[in-house]
Fold this protein.
Amino acid sequence: MTAMDIAQPEPAAPADAATRQFVTFLVGERIYGVDIMQVREIRQWIPATPLPNQPHFTRGVLNLRGTIVPVHDLRAKFAGALTDATENHVVLIASVGGQTIGVLVDAVSDIISVDTSEIRPVPDNAGEADISALLGLVSTEDAMVVLLDLATLFPPPDRDED
């Protein structure tokens, strides 16, 4: 091998567009997943500052290094009942449609790689509150994971209502 061979970087392996990674997490007994490219960080729950006239599932806002981040309770969004949040709960900080949001969940489980051909559609009678926000279902060795579309689940606020 010559010095020239060592100095030249090896060609990168082509990106496999048919594989996506998801961060999986628990809400109650259910396992959900969101695209890893949307997740910016995972933080321990600290109480959010409540704001008036917010949807029932919005717990309030956090100051994240100078950025005000709304925190949404996924259990409340799906089931109506607020999470009795403790220091064991976590907030997924995600970038969705140009905005930063927090999603309160029970615990983060894993990162999974999924071949997109393995993602199954959600049945119309699945019983979730809003199936348009569900990307699909994927089976892992342990369980069925419900894949969420955060942009549909938590669309940006309509600023034209003023």
